[in-house]
């Protein structure tokens, strides 16, 4: 009788150790659905959705506080992907938040720039470099095309230039969903 109790206690202790180890090793630092939603979003950090960046918008979608159709840079394809991920019905892009535009980057006319640093302060991804009263420039690889640098510029020396389509940035123009619906 005592041997059986000791065996059961040993097995229980072993299972407890395994579960304790698994809870530490397999712990997640947040809601994985938020991360999956965030990966679908375009990471422009533009705020057109009504949230200060893509991660807060992803959190709001996951919590049911925001609709899936508020991201103009993500476009129709992004809305389709979010609908598929969340198992909800597709909704067309909400025009209140803007309209989808071709991907572009900011370019500073360096001869006109007065070095005010207002664009640097407005850039959510630190894609603008320069110093006070010195010319500024855009790090093209970092620029997301959010256009947040345009309004604060007092001399209008920043232009948005559409990124030409190449094999590196080309996307299929018709979402898989529209192809499936036709078949």
From TrEMBL:
InterPro entries: 4Fe-4S_dom, 4Fe4S_Fe-S-bd, 4Fe4S_Fe_S_CS, Elect_transpt_cplx_RnfB/RsxB, RnfB/RsxB_Proteobac, RnfB_subfamily. Its EC number is 7.-.-.-. Binds 3 [4Fe-4S] clusters. GO terms for biological process: electron transport chain. GO terms for cellular component: plasma membrane. [4Fe-4S] cluster 3 binds at residues 123, 143, 146, 149. [4Fe-4S] cluster 2 binds at residues 113, 116, 119, 153. One of its GO terms (molecular function) is 4 iron, 4 sulfur cluster binding. Its cofactor is [4Fe-4S] cluster. Its main location: membrane. It is found in: Cell inner membrane. PROSITE patterns: 4FE4S, 4FE4S_FER_1, 4FE4S_FER_2. Residues 104-133, 134-163 form the 4Fe-4S ferredoxin-type domain. Residues 1-23 are annotated as: Hydrophobic. Residues 29-88 form the 4Fe-4S domain. [4Fe-4S] cluster 1 binds at residues 46, 49, 54, 71. Belongs to the 4Fe4S bacterial-type ferredoxin family. RnfB subfamily. Part of a membrane-bound complex that couples electron transfer with translocation of ions across the membrane. PANTHER family: ION-TRANSLOCATING OXIDOREDUCTASE COMPLEX SUBUNIT B (PTHR42859:SF3), OXIDOREDUCTASE (PTHR42859). The complex is composed of six subunits: RnfA, RnfB, RnfC, RnfD, RnfE and RnfG. This is Ion-translocating oxidoreductase complex subunit B. It comes from beta proteobacterium KB13. The gene is rnfB.
């Amino acid at each position: 009788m005592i041997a059986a109790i000791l065996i059961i206690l040993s097995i229980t202790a072993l299972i407890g150790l395994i579960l304790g180890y698994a809870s530490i090793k397999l712990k997640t630092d947040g809601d994985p659905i938020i991360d999956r939603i965030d990966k679908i979003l375009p990471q422009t950090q533009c705020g057109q959705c009504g949230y200060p960046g893509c991660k807060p918008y992803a959190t709001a979608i996951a919590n049911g506080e925001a609709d899936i159709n508020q991201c103009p840079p993500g476009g129709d394809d992004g809305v389709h992907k979010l609908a598929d991920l969340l198992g909800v019905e597709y909704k067309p892009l909400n025009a209140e938040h803007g309209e989808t535009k071709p991907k572009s980057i900011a370019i500073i006319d360096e001869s006109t720039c007065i070095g005010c640093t207002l664009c640097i302060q407005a850039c959510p991804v630190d894609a603008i470099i320069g110093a006070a009263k010195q010319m500024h420039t855009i790090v093209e690889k970092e620029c997301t095309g959010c256009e947040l640098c345009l309004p604060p510029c007092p001399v209008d020396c920043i232009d948005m230039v559409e990124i030409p389509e190449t094999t590196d940035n080309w996307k299929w123009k018709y979402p898989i969903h529209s192809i499936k619906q036709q078949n």
